[in-house]
Amino acid sequence: MQVVDSACDAFITIEGRKLLNLCSNNYLGLAADERLKRAAVRAIRTFGVGTGASRLVSGNIRLHQQLEEKLAKFKKQEACLVYPAGYSTNLGIISVLAGRSDIVLCDRLNHASIVDGIILSRAELMRYAHKDLRALERLLRKSPKHKRKLIITDSVFSMDGDIAPVPGLLELARKHDCLLILDDAHATGVLGKNGRGALEHFGLNADERIVQMGTLSKAVGCLGGFVCGSKDLIDYLVNRSRPFIFTTGLPAAICASALTAIGIIEKDAGLRRRLWENANFLRGGLKSLGFETLESETPIVPVLTKEPALTMEFSRRLFETGVFVQGIRPPTVPEGTSRLRVTVMATHTKKDLEFALEKFQMIGKTLGGI
Ligand SMILES: *Cc1c(COP(=O)(O)O)cnc(C)c1O
Protein backbone atom coordinates (compact mmCIF):
# COMPACT_ATOMS: atom_id res chain seq x y z
CA MET A 1 0.00 0.00 0.00
CA GLN A 2 1.21 3.49 -0.86
CA VAL A 3 1.60 5.79 2.12
CA VAL A 4 0.08 9.24 1.58
CA ASP A 5 1.37 12.24 3.53
CA SER A 6 -1.27 14.80 2.57
CA ALA A 7 -5.02 15.30 2.33
CA CYS A 8 -6.87 13.60 -0.51
CA ASP A 9 -6.95 16.43 -3.03
CA ALA A 10 -6.25 17.14 -6.71
CA PHE A 11 -2.59 16.63 -5.78
CA ILE A 12 -1.32 14.29 -3.06
CA THR A 13 2.08 13.70 -1.48
CA ILE A 14 3.67 10.25 -1.65
CA GLU A 15 7.33 9.46 -0.94
CA GLY A 16 7.98 13.18 -0.60
CA ARG A 17 6.66 13.93 -4.09
CA LYS A 18 3.61 15.89 -5.12
CA LEU A 19 1.58 13.84 -7.59
CA LEU A 20 -1.50 14.56 -9.67
CA ASN A 21 -4.16 12.41 -8.00
CA LEU A 22 -6.20 10.54 -10.61
CA CYS A 23 -7.40 7.64 -8.48
CA SER A 24 -9.60 8.78 -5.63
CA ASN A 25 -13.38 8.66 -5.32
CA ASN A 26 -13.35 12.17 -3.90
CA TYR A 27 -15.12 13.38 -7.04
CA LEU A 28 -16.13 16.83 -5.79
CA GLY A 29 -12.97 17.50 -3.81
CA LEU A 30 -14.98 17.74 -0.58
CA ALA A 31 -12.71 15.45 1.47
CA ALA A 32 -10.31 18.32 2.14
CA ASP A 33 -12.82 21.18 1.89
CA GLU A 34 -12.34 23.86 4.57
CA ARG A 35 -16.08 23.99 5.35
CA LEU A 36 -16.13 20.25 6.10
CA LYS A 37 -13.01 20.53 8.25
CA ARG A 38 -14.54 23.36 10.27
CA ALA A 39 -17.78 21.41 10.77
CA ALA A 40 -15.79 18.40 11.96
CA VAL A 41 -13.76 20.45 14.45
CA ARG A 42 -16.90 22.12 15.86
CA ALA A 43 -18.57 18.74 16.32
CA ILE A 44 -15.54 17.29 18.10
CA ARG A 45 -15.62 20.20 20.59
CA THR A 46 -19.18 19.25 21.62
CA PHE A 47 -19.35 15.50 21.11
CA GLY A 48 -15.73 14.40 21.39
CA VAL A 49 -14.15 11.93 19.04
CA GLY A 50 -15.72 8.48 19.42
CA THR A 51 -19.39 7.81 20.12
CA GLY A 52 -18.50 5.13 22.65
CA ALA A 53 -21.18 2.53 21.94
CA SER A 54 -23.60 1.01 19.49
CA ARG A 55 -26.38 3.39 18.52
CA LEU A 56 -28.85 1.04 20.23
CA VAL A 57 -27.00 1.51 23.53
CA SER A 58 -25.69 5.05 24.16
CA GLY A 59 -23.92 5.93 20.89
CA ASN A 60 -26.90 7.52 19.09
CA ILE A 61 -26.04 11.24 19.01
CA ARG A 62 -28.22 14.13 17.80
CA LEU A 63 -26.03 14.47 14.70
CA HIS A 64 -26.97 10.95 13.52
CA GLN A 65 -30.61 11.98 13.60
CA GLN A 66 -29.92 15.25 11.77
CA LEU A 67 -27.82 13.51 9.13
CA GLU A 68 -30.48 10.87 8.53
CA GLU A 69 -33.21 13.49 8.19
CA LYS A 70 -31.05 15.46 5.76
CA LEU A 71 -30.29 12.37 3.65
CA ALA A 72 -33.94 11.25 3.57
CA LYS A 73 -34.95 14.69 2.27
CA PHE A 74 -32.05 14.75 -0.20
CA LYS A 75 -33.14 11.36 -1.60
CA LYS A 76 -36.84 12.29 -1.37
CA GLN A 77 -37.65 9.28 0.78
CA GLU A 78 -39.44 8.88 4.07
CA ALA A 79 -36.55 7.72 6.22
CA CYS A 80 -32.85 6.91 6.26
CA LEU A 81 -30.37 4.90 8.30
CA VAL A 82 -26.64 5.60 8.42
CA TYR A 83 -24.04 2.84 8.83
CA PRO A 84 -20.32 3.21 9.62
CA ALA A 85 -19.34 2.21 6.06
CA GLY A 86 -20.82 1.60 2.63
CA TYR A 87 -19.51 -1.94 2.90
CA SER A 88 -21.45 -2.71 6.06
CA THR A 89 -24.52 -0.95 4.65
CA ASN A 90 -24.73 -3.50 1.84
CA LEU A 91 -24.17 -6.38 4.26
CA GLY A 92 -26.79 -4.86 6.54
CA ILE A 93 -29.51 -4.35 3.94
CA ILE A 94 -29.13 -7.52 1.91
CA SER A 95 -28.80 -9.87 4.88
CA VAL A 96 -32.12 -8.56 6.23
CA LEU A 97 -34.09 -8.23 2.99
CA ALA A 98 -33.09 -11.65 1.63
CA GLY A 99 -33.15 -14.98 3.44
CA ARG A 100 -32.33 -18.62 3.02
CA SER A 101 -35.26 -19.40 0.70
CA ASP A 102 -34.95 -16.29 -1.52
CA ILE A 103 -33.13 -15.52 -4.75
CA VAL A 104 -30.95 -12.45 -5.33
CA LEU A 105 -30.32 -11.43 -8.93
CA CYS A 106 -27.02 -9.63 -9.18
CA ASP A 107 -25.26 -7.90 -12.09
CA ARG A 108 -22.02 -9.73 -12.81
CA LEU A 109 -19.98 -6.55 -12.22
CA ASN A 110 -21.61 -5.57 -8.92
CA HIS A 111 -19.35 -4.44 -6.08
CA ALA A 112 -17.80 -7.02 -3.72
CA SER A 113 -19.82 -5.72 -0.75
CA ILE A 114 -23.02 -6.72 -2.58
CA VAL A 115 -21.73 -10.22 -3.21
CA ASP A 116 -20.67 -10.53 0.43
CA GLY A 117 -24.10 -9.29 1.56
CA ILE A 118 -25.76 -12.01 -0.50
CA ILE A 119 -23.45 -14.65 0.97
CA LEU A 120 -24.30 -13.43 4.47
CA SER A 121 -28.03 -13.59 3.68
CA ARG A 122 -27.71 -17.28 2.67
CA ALA A 123 -30.03 -16.56 -0.28
CA GLU A 124 -29.37 -18.11 -3.66
CA LEU A 125 -27.10 -15.87 -5.78
CA MET A 126 -27.92 -15.61 -9.49
CA ARG A 127 -25.63 -13.46 -11.59
CA TYR A 128 -26.83 -11.96 -14.85
CA ALA A 129 -24.59 -10.71 -17.67
CA HIS A 130 -23.59 -7.08 -17.21
CA LYS A 131 -26.55 -4.70 -17.75
CA ASP A 132 -28.31 -7.42 -19.79
CA LEU A 133 -32.05 -7.02 -19.20
CA ARG A 134 -32.90 -10.02 -21.39
CA ALA A 135 -30.56 -12.29 -19.46
CA LEU A 136 -32.12 -11.02 -16.24
CA GLU A 137 -35.64 -11.65 -17.49
CA ARG A 138 -34.69 -15.20 -18.53
CA LEU A 139 -33.46 -15.86 -15.00
CA LEU A 140 -36.60 -14.33 -13.49
CA ARG A 141 -38.84 -16.55 -15.65
CA LYS A 142 -36.80 -19.66 -15.02
CA SER A 143 -36.67 -19.28 -11.23
CA PRO A 144 -39.43 -20.84 -9.09
CA LYS A 145 -42.58 -18.68 -8.93
CA HIS A 146 -43.12 -19.07 -5.20
CA LYS A 147 -39.67 -17.76 -4.25
CA ARG A 148 -39.13 -14.17 -3.20
CA LYS A 149 -36.76 -12.36 -5.55
CA LEU A 150 -34.65 -9.29 -5.26
CA ILE A 151 -32.71 -7.45 -7.98
CA ILE A 152 -29.58 -5.56 -7.00
CA THR A 153 -27.24 -3.36 -9.00
CA ASP A 154 -24.51 -0.74 -8.74
CA SER A 155 -26.08 2.30 -10.38
CA VAL A 156 -22.65 3.52 -11.50
CA PHE A 157 -20.32 0.54 -11.88
CA SER A 158 -17.27 1.16 -9.76
CA MET A 159 -14.63 -0.27 -12.11
CA ASP A 160 -16.18 0.42 -15.54
CA GLY A 161 -17.82 3.79 -14.96
CA ASP A 162 -20.98 2.92 -16.89
CA ILE A 163 -24.56 3.39 -15.68
CA ALA A 164 -27.08 0.62 -14.94
CA PRO A 165 -30.28 0.54 -17.05
CA VAL A 166 -32.40 1.52 -14.05
CA PRO A 167 -35.72 2.15 -15.89
CA GLY A 168 -35.55 -1.32 -17.46
CA LEU A 169 -34.61 -2.92 -14.15
CA LEU A 170 -37.55 -1.20 -12.44
CA GLU A 171 -39.91 -2.42 -15.13
CA LEU A 172 -38.73 -6.01 -14.61
CA ALA A 173 -38.96 -5.61 -10.83
CA ARG A 174 -42.60 -4.51 -11.22
CA LYS A 175 -43.44 -7.23 -13.71
CA HIS A 176 -41.97 -10.00 -11.55
CA ASP A 177 -42.95 -8.45 -8.21
CA CYS A 178 -39.49 -8.04 -6.69
CA LEU A 179 -37.59 -5.41 -4.79
CA LEU A 180 -34.90 -3.39 -6.56
CA ILE A 181 -31.86 -2.32 -4.55
CA LEU A 182 -29.80 0.49 -6.09
CA ASP A 183 -26.23 1.02 -4.90
CA ASP A 184 -25.61 4.72 -5.48
CA ALA A 185 -22.05 4.64 -4.06
CA HIS A 186 -20.58 6.41 -7.11
CA ALA A 187 -23.82 8.17 -8.07
CA THR A 188 -24.47 10.17 -4.90
CA GLY A 189 -23.44 13.78 -5.54
CA VAL A 190 -22.48 12.85 -9.11
CA LEU A 191 -25.61 11.77 -11.06
CA GLY A 192 -28.72 13.87 -11.55
CA LYS A 193 -29.28 17.60 -11.78
CA ASN A 194 -29.03 18.01 -7.99
CA GLY A 195 -26.68 15.10 -7.39
CA ARG A 196 -29.41 12.95 -5.84
CA GLY A 197 -28.28 9.86 -7.73
CA ALA A 198 -29.53 7.39 -10.30
CA LEU A 199 -33.28 7.97 -9.87
CA GLU A 200 -32.89 11.69 -10.49
CA HIS A 201 -30.62 10.97 -13.46
CA PHE A 202 -33.37 8.89 -15.09
CA GLY A 203 -36.23 11.16 -13.98
CA LEU A 204 -37.74 8.41 -11.80
CA ASN A 205 -39.50 8.85 -8.47
CA ALA A 206 -38.81 7.01 -5.24
CA ASP A 207 -41.03 3.97 -5.08
CA GLU A 208 -42.00 1.38 -2.42
CA ARG A 209 -40.29 -1.18 -4.60
CA ILE A 210 -36.92 0.61 -4.65
CA VAL A 211 -34.40 0.61 -1.83
CA GLN A 212 -31.63 3.18 -2.33
CA MET A 213 -28.28 2.87 -0.64
CA GLY A 214 -25.36 5.20 -0.99
CA THR A 215 -22.04 6.07 0.59
CA LEU A 216 -20.73 9.12 2.39
CA SER A 217 -17.18 8.07 1.52
CA LYS A 218 -16.97 9.06 -2.14
CA ALA A 219 -18.35 12.34 -3.56
CA VAL A 220 -19.58 13.28 -0.07
CA GLY A 221 -15.93 13.20 1.01
CA CYS A 222 -16.38 11.59 4.45
CA LEU A 223 -17.04 8.02 5.61
CA GLY A 224 -20.08 5.83 6.09
CA GLY A 225 -23.01 4.45 4.17
CA PHE A 226 -26.74 5.02 4.22
CA VAL A 227 -29.98 3.46 3.10
CA CYS A 228 -33.18 5.33 2.29
CA GLY A 229 -36.67 3.92 2.10
CA SER A 230 -39.98 3.76 3.92
CA LYS A 231 -40.19 4.35 7.68
CA ASP A 232 -41.18 0.69 8.11
CA LEU A 233 -38.10 -0.50 6.25
CA ILE A 234 -35.80 1.67 8.38
CA ASP A 235 -37.48 0.53 11.65
CA TYR A 236 -37.07 -3.05 10.54
CA LEU A 237 -33.36 -2.55 9.80
CA VAL A 238 -32.77 -0.87 13.18
CA ASN A 239 -34.14 -4.00 14.85
CA ARG A 240 -32.72 -6.68 12.58
CA SER A 241 -29.63 -5.50 10.73
CA ARG A 242 -26.63 -6.99 12.54
CA PRO A 243 -23.99 -4.82 10.74
CA PHE A 244 -25.93 -1.84 12.15
CA ILE A 245 -26.67 -3.18 15.63
CA PHE A 246 -23.35 -4.73 16.56
CA THR A 247 -21.07 -1.84 15.69
CA THR A 248 -20.23 1.57 17.11
CA GLY A 249 -22.03 4.67 15.84
CA LEU A 250 -20.34 6.91 13.26
CA PRO A 251 -18.19 9.62 14.94
CA ALA A 252 -19.60 13.13 15.41
CA ALA A 253 -16.95 14.76 13.21
CA ILE A 254 -17.97 12.58 10.29
CA CYS A 255 -21.69 13.22 10.80
CA ALA A 256 -21.15 16.98 10.92
CA SER A 257 -18.92 17.09 7.86
CA ALA A 258 -21.30 14.84 5.91
CA LEU A 259 -24.19 17.16 6.81
CA THR A 260 -22.18 20.11 5.48
CA ALA A 261 -21.24 18.18 2.34
CA ILE A 262 -24.85 17.31 1.50
CA GLY A 263 -25.70 21.01 1.89
CA ILE A 264 -22.92 21.93 -0.55
CA ILE A 265 -23.98 19.24 -3.02
CA GLU A 266 -27.55 20.56 -2.97
CA LYS A 267 -26.55 24.20 -3.44
CA ASP A 268 -23.44 24.19 -5.63
CA ALA A 269 -24.37 22.84 -9.05
CA GLY A 270 -21.18 24.43 -10.42
CA LEU A 271 -19.08 21.87 -8.61
CA ARG A 272 -20.88 19.02 -10.36
CA ARG A 273 -20.70 20.83 -13.70
CA ARG A 274 -16.92 21.11 -13.41
CA LEU A 275 -16.69 17.43 -12.51
CA TRP A 276 -18.56 16.42 -15.67
CA GLU A 277 -16.63 18.84 -17.86
CA ASN A 278 -13.40 17.32 -16.55
CA ALA A 279 -14.68 13.77 -16.99
CA ASN A 280 -15.72 14.40 -20.58
CA PHE A 281 -12.46 16.19 -21.38
CA LEU A 282 -10.24 13.45 -19.97
CA ARG A 283 -12.26 10.56 -21.41
CA GLY A 284 -12.36 12.25 -24.83
CA GLY A 285 -8.61 12.87 -24.66
CA LEU A 286 -7.75 9.29 -23.73
CA LYS A 287 -10.01 7.94 -26.45
CA SER A 288 -8.55 10.16 -29.13
CA LEU A 289 -5.06 8.99 -28.09
CA GLY A 290 -6.27 5.49 -28.92
CA PHE A 291 -6.85 4.08 -25.41
CA GLU A 292 -9.80 1.81 -24.76
CA THR A 293 -12.11 3.20 -22.09
CA LEU A 294 -14.84 0.51 -22.19
CA GLU A 295 -18.36 1.93 -21.82
CA SER A 296 -17.38 4.68 -19.40
CA GLU A 297 -19.88 7.53 -19.23
CA THR A 298 -19.06 8.99 -15.78
CA PRO A 299 -16.02 10.43 -13.94
CA ILE A 300 -14.70 6.85 -13.64
CA VAL A 301 -12.64 6.22 -16.79
CA PRO A 302 -11.00 2.79 -17.08
CA VAL A 303 -7.99 2.56 -19.39
CA LEU A 304 -7.90 -1.04 -20.48
CA THR A 305 -4.40 -2.52 -20.38
CA LYS A 306 -5.58 -6.16 -20.09
CA GLU A 307 -2.40 -7.78 -18.70
CA PRO A 308 -1.55 -7.35 -15.00
CA ALA A 309 2.21 -6.89 -15.60
CA LEU A 310 1.71 -4.19 -18.26
CA THR A 311 -0.87 -2.50 -16.02
CA MET A 312 1.45 -2.25 -13.03
CA GLU A 313 4.40 -1.12 -15.15
CA PHE A 314 2.24 1.57 -16.75
CA SER A 315 1.14 2.73 -13.32
CA ARG A 316 4.76 2.78 -12.08
CA ARG A 317 5.89 4.93 -15.01
CA LEU A 318 2.98 7.34 -14.54
CA PHE A 319 4.07 7.65 -10.91
CA GLU A 320 7.63 8.45 -12.01
CA THR A 321 6.36 11.27 -14.22
CA GLY A 322 4.11 12.76 -11.53
CA VAL A 323 0.72 11.11 -12.09
CA PHE A 324 -0.84 8.77 -9.54
CA VAL A 325 -3.16 6.11 -11.04
CA GLN A 326 -3.48 2.67 -9.44
CA GLY A 327 -3.59 -0.46 -11.55
CA ILE A 328 -6.60 -2.72 -10.98
CA ARG A 329 -6.18 -6.47 -11.50
CA PRO A 330 -8.20 -9.66 -10.93
CA PRO A 331 -10.00 -10.55 -8.71
CA THR A 332 -11.27 -6.95 -8.48
CA VAL A 333 -11.97 -7.13 -12.24
CA PRO A 334 -12.41 -10.21 -14.51
CA GLU A 335 -9.31 -11.96 -15.97
CA GLY A 336 -7.93 -10.24 -19.06
CA THR A 337 -9.46 -6.87 -18.18
CA SER A 338 -6.76 -5.37 -15.94
CA ARG A 339 -6.88 -1.63 -16.19
CA LEU A 340 -5.75 1.75 -14.96
CA ARG A 341 -8.81 3.10 -13.21
CA VAL A 342 -8.65 6.84 -13.82
CA THR A 343 -11.00 9.11 -11.89
CA VAL A 344 -11.31 12.85 -12.21
CA MET A 345 -12.27 15.48 -9.67
CA ALA A 346 -14.13 18.78 -9.93
CA THR A 347 -10.99 20.43 -8.54
CA HIS A 348 -8.64 19.34 -11.34
CA THR A 349 -7.82 22.09 -13.81
CA LYS A 350 -7.73 21.64 -17.55
CA LYS A 351 -3.96 22.10 -17.35
CA ASP A 352 -3.71 19.21 -14.86
CA LEU A 353 -5.63 16.94 -17.20
CA GLU A 354 -3.60 18.01 -20.25
CA PHE A 355 -0.47 17.15 -18.28
CA ALA A 356 -1.89 13.69 -17.53
CA LEU A 357 -2.84 13.09 -21.17
CA GLU A 358 0.68 13.99 -22.27
CA LYS A 359 2.13 11.40 -19.86
CA PHE A 360 -0.37 8.75 -20.92
CA GLN A 361 0.55 9.31 -24.54
CA MET A 362 4.28 9.16 -23.90
CA ILE A 363 4.13 5.98 -21.83
CA GLY A 364 1.52 4.33 -24.06
CA LYS A 365 3.83 4.81 -27.05
CA THR A 366 6.84 3.20 -25.42
CA LEU A 367 5.04 0.52 -23.42
CA GLY A 368 1.92 -0.32 -25.42
CA GLY A 369 -1.70 -0.21 -24.31
CA ILE A 370 -2.75 2.14 -27.10
C1 LIG B 1 -17.09 1.80 -2.49
C2 LIG B 1 -18.31 1.03 -2.70
C3 LIG B 1 -19.00 0.48 -1.62
C4 LIG B 1 -18.46 0.52 -0.21
O1 LIG B 1 -18.43 1.79 0.30
P1 LIG B 1 -17.39 2.20 1.45
O2 LIG B 1 -18.02 3.45 1.98
O3 LIG B 1 -16.08 2.42 0.80
O4 LIG B 1 -17.37 1.10 2.45
C5 LIG B 1 -20.21 -0.15 -1.87
N1 LIG B 1 -20.70 -0.26 -3.13
C6 LIG B 1 -20.03 0.23 -4.19
C7 LIG B 1 -20.62 0.09 -5.55
C8 LIG B 1 -18.82 0.89 -4.01
O5 LIG B 1 -18.14 1.34 -5.05
Question: In words, what does this structure look like?
Answer:
- This protein has 370 residues and is α/β, with parallel strands linked by helices.
- The chain contains 13 helices and 13 strands.
- The chain is globular, with a radius of gyration of 21 Å.
- It binds pyridoxal-5'-phosphate (PLP).
- The site of pyridoxal-5'-phosphate has 14 residues, from helix 3.
Q: Tell me how many strands there are.
A: 13
Q: Characterize the quaternary organization of these chains.
A: single chain
Q: How big is the Rg?
A: 21 Å
Largest sheet: 7 strands, mixed
What count of domains describes the coordinates? 2
CATH superfamily of the largest domain: Type I PLP-dependent aspartate aminotransferase-like (Major domain)
Beta-strand residue percentage: 15-25%
Q: What is the CATH top level name of the largest domain?
A: Alpha Beta
Helix residue percentage: 40-55%
Q: What's the CATH topology name of the largest domain?
A: Aspartate Aminotransferase, domain 2
Low-confidence stretches: none
Just name the CATH architecture of the largest domain: 3-Layer(aba) Sandwich
The chain-level mean pLDDT equals 97
Note the overall shape: globular
Instruction: Assign the structural class, choosing from mainly alpha, mainly beta, alpha/beta, alpha+beta, or little secondary structure.
Output: alpha/beta
- From the N-terminal CA to the C-terminal CA, the straight-line distance is 27 Å
Give the number of helices.
13
Which properties best describe this structure?
370 residues; seven-stranded mixed sheet; Aspartate Aminotransferase, domain 2; binds pyridoxal-5'-phosphate; Aspartate Aminotransferase, domain 1; alpha/beta; 13 helices
